[in-house]
Each structure stands twice: as C-alpha cells, then as structure tokens.
C-alpha cells in the first residue's frame, strides 16, 4: 500500500454563473487532469457504512477523525474499478486505493465479502476485516460530473463537481446513465486540494464572491436525499 500522504482540502459551493466564470478562467492557464475525456468526466461511487451508520454520524456529529470506504469507477468504464478508503483528520486528510475486478465489486454489492478473504493488498485486507467486525453494508450510489485541473507545484488539484445524483438502489451501480435523485439547490462544488502549500496565484485564480468554505459531503447529502 502506498505511503500515506496527508493533503489539505477546501470545498466551496458555487452558483452556475460562477462555475462558468471559473471554468473559463482555469482552462486558460491549467491543464486538465489525466482522467479527463474532453473537458469533464463522470464518476460513480458506492459508499459503504456499518449497520449503525457510523460514517454518517461521525460526519453529522462533527468528529475530527472520520473514514469512509467506497468503490468507484469512471466514465461508465467498469474495466477499472477501485476500492478506496478516504480519511479526514482535522483540517487534513488522505486517500488510499486498491484495484478490484467487476466480479469482486458485484460480490461486495451483494455483501459477499469473502471474495476478499485471501486478498494480498493491505487495504483489501482492512476492508474485509472491518466488513466482518463492523457489519459493513453498501448504502448509497453517488454519480456526478467533474472537471479537474492539475498543477505540479504543491501537488495542486482543482475540481468542479456538478450534476450530482444519489440512489440507494445499490444493485444499479453498473447501470448506464443517470440514476437516483438530483442534488437540489447546489449547482457546483469547487474543491481545492494540495499538499504542503497552495501557490498564491492559484489561490487568487479560484476566488469568487461565493468561495466560503463548506463541509459539503456527497455521502451525507446522498443519504439525506434518500431519507437516510
């Protein structure tokens, strides 16, 4: 498993007008990241939680340390799927991932976790142990579009996420097209991520009158949209 690298992450909810302004501004000076197909790409994630919804309540209660597990793929391409663990620890966080097959993902969706019993990757071993000890369950699918930009210094990444939908019909994880309920009232979420420092000109570049930090959580919002 790769070495843990803590990163800073700031989120801002912005309007469609400011999304258009920022997108135009960013495209002029930054390159899209490697996942981009054209200007944007689609992301679909399935989040897991315990039978007591520990990850949900850790976020709702404002716990400093939180972790979530999910499986994710991009652009409706099920040939590349990852199981990810995302950790938030105060103002910083990190993400770890391991590749899995579609057959393994299908079994996890059905709560047949023994498919990971002999896994060699430490993250898969951890998820298997916690799925057994904490009674993990697939909870909600989150699908959205992302336009992402990368800048080498500071390992800086800027993403604009929009058109988010959520569904608790976990068996539809590999279905084509949009599924579930659309997130109301939020046009776009701007995220700025970096390691040790954020270049000053990048900070100036992403400023709008709306860039007030938010604790926007796609997982929690997805659960709310589907009434927990």
Automatic annotation (TrEMBL):
Tell me where in this chain the VTC domain is found. Answer: 7-223
GO BP term, pick one: polyphosphate biosynthetic process
**Would you tell me the protein name for this molecule?**
Polyphosphate polymerase domain-containing protein
> Which source organism does the UniProt entry give?
Trichococcus shcherbakoviae subsp. psychrophilus
From the broadest rank down, the organism's phylogenetic lineage runs: Bacteria, Bacillati, Bacillota, Bacilli, Lactobacillales
């Amino acid at each position: 498993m790769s070495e843990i690298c803590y990163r800073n992450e700031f989120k801002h909810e912005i309007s469609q007008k400011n999304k258009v302004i920022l997108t135009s501004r960013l495209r002029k000076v930054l390159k899209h990241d490697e996942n981009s197909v054209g200007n944007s790409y689609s992301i679909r994630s399935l989040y897991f939680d315990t039978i007591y919804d520990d990850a949900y309540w850790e976020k709702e209660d404002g716990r400093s340390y939180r972790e979530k597990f999910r499986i994710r793929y991009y652009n409706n391409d099920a040939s590349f799927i990852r199981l990810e663990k995302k950790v938030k620890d105060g103002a910083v966080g990190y993400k770890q991932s391991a590749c899995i097959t579609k057959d393994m993902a299908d079994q996890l969706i059905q709560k047949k976790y023994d498919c990971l019993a002999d896994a060699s990757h430490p993250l898969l071993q951890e998820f298997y142990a916690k799925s057994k000890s904490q009674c993990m369950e697939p909870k909600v699918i989150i699908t959205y579009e992302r336009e992402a930009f990368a800048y080498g210094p500071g390992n800086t990444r800027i993403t604009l996420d929009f058109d988010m939908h959520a569904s608790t019909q976990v068996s539809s994880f590999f279905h084509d097209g949009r599924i579930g309920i659309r997130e109301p009232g939020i046009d776009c979420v701007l995220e700025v991520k970096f390691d040790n420092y954020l270049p000053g000109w990048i900070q100036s570049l992403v400023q709008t009158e709306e860039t007030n930090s938010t604790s926007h959580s796609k997982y929690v919002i997805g659960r709310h949209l589907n009434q927990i």
